[in-house]
Design brief:
The protein is an alpha/beta fold. The protein contains 10 helices and 16 strands. The protein has a single domain, classed as Purple Acid Phosphatase, chain A, domain 2 (4-Layer Sandwich). The longest helix has 20 residues, at 207-226. It binds manganese (II) ion.
Length: 345
């Protein structure tokens, strides 16, 4: 029997406001419809940051103290905003033996809450064909969002929650807290510029954007790093991984945005952690990458985002990014083919 595994990442569905960067609902619905029509067993892996809980306000404000109630109210809003996507996924699941797997990324840690998982299962139907985890593995392939090999967004998967002042909260990584307390302001002021990749080039081309980022980074440096012990007194969610930060600055300087630079290191880390796989897939970086390593013919793939995002080419023309996906084909449990493809409607 033929089995296809489809992987897409970084869809970032929000609540349709200024902070929601998803636009192309009809393209995603088309994609899901198209793979619904394919014969055999089809598995769809939504490889992290499927939902943009991180950039959603709750009662008019951003918070890094996220209770199950807050996450539930956000998933309700996402379902209300994008009903056609949930309907398409539901139709995909009705065809046996199809399955949907959610990998948890750094914008949707909220998927750790049992009530959020239940809400999604109830909305899509076919609860037994839906799974959630931080990675997806077969004998040959390893798929994860990518934040676990990014020290800014790494989180202890065995401790998704913590207790603070009698409340159970999401145990969020440093990067999530830094964005929700400080850098979200950059998105509010420059919602368009923030959608241009590569990031370091966007900062180069839009001086106002760069100045504002530097200003926020300065405030963050003082309050969020240097004086964090004062500004976040007794706040366990807002702890800072100082050792890893120093290590990074020592190795790479203050460069945080040149994602291509860190790519090889992250794949090397994945190989170290899961040495016996043939194919390694990530999202998170918002770029396309396909590489066959000379050693052992390992395949490394990064799928690009499905949110509205632009590439800045050398000629400074901005171009809307194409939607990309990976397709892995098995025939009678034998790995046949691994492709990184662009979805053309
Ligand atoms: Mn991510």
């Amino acid at each position: 029997m033929i089995k296809n595994i489809f992987v897409i990442s970084d869809i970032e569905l929000g609540q349709g406001d200024l902070f929601d960067d998803f636009r192309d609902e009809h393209i995603l619905v088309d994609f899901i419809n198209k793979i619904t029509g394919i014969k055999g067993k089809n598995i769809l892996i939504l490889n992290g940051d499927t939902f943009d809980f991180l950039k959603m306000q709750y009662q008019g404000a951003f918070t890094h103290h996220v209770t199950e109630e807050i996450s539930l109210s956000k998933i309700d809003k996402i379902i209300e905003t994008y009903p056609r996507i949930f309907q398409a996924l539901s139709r995909f699941l009705k065809k046996s033996p199809n399955r949907v797997h959610f990998n948890i990324g750094n914008h949707d840690h909220d998927l750790h809450w049992p009530a959020v998982q239940k809400k999604i299962r109830d909305t899509l139907g076919e609860p037994s064909k839906i799974s959630f985890d931080i990675s997806y593995q077969t004998r040959d392939i390893h798929v994860e969002h990518g934040n676990q090999v990014d020290y800014l967004y790494k989180q202890d998967p065995k401790k998704p929650f913590l207790t603070h002042r009698g409340k159970t909260l999401l145990n969020l990584p440093f990067g999530y807290v830094a964005v929700s307390r400080y850098f979200i302001e950059l998105k509010r002021l420059f919602p368009f510029e923030e959608k241009i990749y590569p990031r370091h080039q966007a900062f180069e081309n839009f001086p106002e954007f760069r100045r504002q980022k530097q200003k926020i980074a300065f405030i963050f440096g003082i309050r969020g790093l240097f004086l964090n012990f004062l500004f976040s007194l007794g706040d366990p969610v807002a702890s800072v991984p100082y050792f890893n930060l120093f290590k990074h600055v020592f190795q790479h300087g203050l460069e945080l945005y040149d994602e291509k630079k860190f790519l090889q290191k992250r794949f090397r880390n994945l190989v170290k952690l899961y040495p016996d796989k043939k194919v390694y897939l990530m999202g998170h970086l918002h770029l396309i990458h396909h590489e066959i390593s000379p050693h052992k013919d390992r395949i490394f793939i990064v799928t690009d985002t499905w949110r509205e995002e632009y590439n800045l080419s050398v000629g400074k023309e901005k171009v809307l990014k194409p939607k990309t996906y990976a397709k892995i084909t098995y025939d009678n449990d034998k790995l046949q083919k691994v492709d990184l493809l662009t979805f053309d409607q």
